Amino acid sequence: MHLQFLGSGDAFGSGGRLNTCFLLDRADRSLLIDCGASAMISIRRFGIDPNRIAGIVLSHLHGDHFGGLPFFILDAQLVSRRTTPLMIVGPPGLAKRLEAIMEACFPGSAQAPRKFRTKTIELDLKTRTTVEPLAVAITPTPVRHPSGAPSMALRLECEDRTIAYTGDTEWVDGLIEAGHNADVLIAEAYTFERRIPYHLDFASLRDNLSRLAAKRVVLTHMSPDMLSRDDKMLAGCERAFDGMLLYL
Fold first, then answer.
1. Is 22 within the bounds of a domain?
2. Are 187 and 208 spatial neighbours (Cβ–Cβ below 8 Å)?
3. How much is the pLDDT for 78?
4. Average pLDDT over residues 170-189
5. Residue 166 belongs to what domain range?
6. CB contact set of 49 (below 8 Å; sequence gap of 6+)
7. Do the Cβ atoms of 216 and 184 come closer than 8 Å?
8. CATH code at 216?
9. What pLDDT, on a 0 to 100 scale, did the predictor assign at position 122?
10. What Cα–Cα distance (Å) separates residue 43 from each residue in 28, 47, 52, 230, 244?
11. What angle do CA 71, 87, 57 make, to 5 degrees?
12. CA dihedral defined by 139, 167, 152, 127, rounded to 10 degrees?
């Protein structure tokens, strides 16, 4: 099992990086964590067969985190000729927002017949849910990032490994529970120390690293301010880049 950062950027392509999209590669149970608007570009660039992706797990419903879904689904239908089911897992309100974005991008596509089944699962906050076809347990923790539906930090448990992800949020203590003792914590670090509403600054993360006790912390969703900082300032955390590969 390995984790590949197909997109490590913010909403605005800072540093030329693609939108958020992480591949948890597990053969026929592979899944994406977030599926930003540039996800299909990422998938093609890094030579990923989209038909191997059994599920997509979403932290929240902003375009740079779920805006790639219409393109993924249309590619599956018209280009990749998918026949296996696709699980899409996310916050309450996912099904309605997915239909809306499909219709906004490609009118008529939401109800178009397909040769594969698409199933949406809306997670209950603070509840550990096992998604059987994906063989993964997901615990969503509410965070502070308005997105028209609950935004969540995610804790995923599979194959004796735990992958945690802050999603987008300003610091909230719920991140401790989501990320505690994770094998890998993927953490937003939008700014270095300047605090702005609804986004995580590196200084707040750094001050809580001992409480998180994650075995490895990888920073993502970075603005130009954060990208300009020297690696020596990162307190042992790693900076993600598009294509980065971690073996778990």
1. yes
2. no
3. 97
4. 98
5. 2-241
6. 80
7. yes
8. 3.60.15.10
9. 98
10. 16, 6, 11, 29, 13
11. 80
12. 0
Residue 57 covered by a domain: yes
Q: Percent of the chain scored above 90 by pLDDT?
A: 100
Amino acid at position 150, single letter? P
Give the strand pairing for 152-158 and 21-25. Answer: unpaired
Assigned domain for 138 exists: yes
pLDDT tens column, 3-30: 999 999 999 999 999 999 999 999 989 9
Strand partners, 218: 186, 238
Using an 8 Å Cβ cutoff, are 170 and 199 in contact?
Answer: yes
Query: For 84-121, what is each residue's pLDDT tens digit?
Result: 999 999 999 999 999 999 999 999 999 999 999 999 99
Structure tokens at 81: 């000729």
